[in-house]
Amino acid sequence: MPDVAASPISPTLTDAPARPYVVFEDGRDGRTLLFSEPEEIIVAREPREAKDAFARMEAATKRGLYLAGYASYELGYALEPKFWTQTTPRSRTPLLLFGAFRAPQPWTLPPADAPAPYIPLTPAWSQAEYAERFQACRDYIFAGDVYQINLTFPLYGRYEGDPLALYRGLRKRQPVAYGGVVALGEETVVSLSPEVFFEAQGRSIRARPMKGTAQRGVMPTEDMARAQYLVEDEKSRAENLMIVDLLRNDLSRLAEVGSVKVTDLFTVQTYPTLHQMTSGIEARLRDDVTLADLFTGLFPCGSVTGAPKIRAMEIIRDLECAPRGVYCGSLGLIAPDGDIRFNVAIRTLTLFPDHELVCNVGSAVVADSRAREEYEECLIKARFLTGTSERGA
């Protein structure tokens, strides 16, 4: 996060900001920042607008402004020339939406008085409907088109309260690595992501893909055994390694020759409802890499597409029932000194003005995946919102 001097009195929830605003939290160092009263809002709704939006973002940082906001998953189609002559999904959210702000304020968000409310969710696909798409993924894999496809679907619910209150309640249930609330447009995005996409300081860049999931155990011994099983599970390790290789390849196109390194493999991180496997990659960016280059080379994160990335994105476009929107995109901030931090927008909700809430979930399909297990894994990932504990709830 950018280095922000502490103010004598940090704002609290009782000083809730007026829209438009962005609140970002880094759960690793305990810092929360409020971006309010933007000097400019930069938006791209059509693919042809992305180039100008990136130019405006670069210009804003050169004027000493901070950028905070999000990029939707469908921006990836707009940045890849192969898709320019093809029909691609049209998201309900902008492809790119950032505010340009003066220095952010430290933000004190008090602990929630109560857990988030129970929000019933209706999956877009039944298990049978999921199994049909799952089989299509397996057919592509066995035909040699891809090694892995991240298949996702939305769940729908209703919420009429304050997004910051919802974030506070969900945060009590699901601690975040990097999340917050983006309220720059008509929709509001609430993200409690455990996955960092990339961080850059100067020319140094780090990525930490997350792939491989195990449900938490009830008793400590069972819980430890499940975490250890995840470490040793060949399927999870293969999924993780595929994405590490994909991101190494993406970074190599932007980095100095020989600078891309894997710092650790198959590290298990534990959250209230599940264990997840991560790995670390770092590199040194070339001096001529721009913000547009960075997104064109890396976005969207390979952990939410599959491998090879472009072919996986084609299959996702054809099989999924709705655009992903901000889900599987990225929330982040860019400081005028060049420091950048973005998450992978999983565990991410979008709230629309008509009070509709959309929560997407997904999992990686590989050659030895099983439809029922993958569908249940998807629903497990929605528990941060529903608060349920029964398997498959």
UniProtKB/TrEMBL annotation:
Indicate the segments forming the Chorismate-utilising enzyme C-terminal domain, all copies. Answer: 127-381
Highest taxon in the source lineage = Bacteria
What's this protein's name? Answer: Aminodeoxychorismate synthase component I
**Cited Pfam families:** Chorismate_bind
Stored Gene3D superfamilies: Anthranilate synthase (3.60.120.10)
Species: Methylocystis iwaonis
Q: Which residues cross the membrane?
A: none
Q: What is the lineage of its organism?
A: Bacteria, Pseudomonadati, Pseudomonadota, Alphaproteobacteria, Hyphomicrobiales
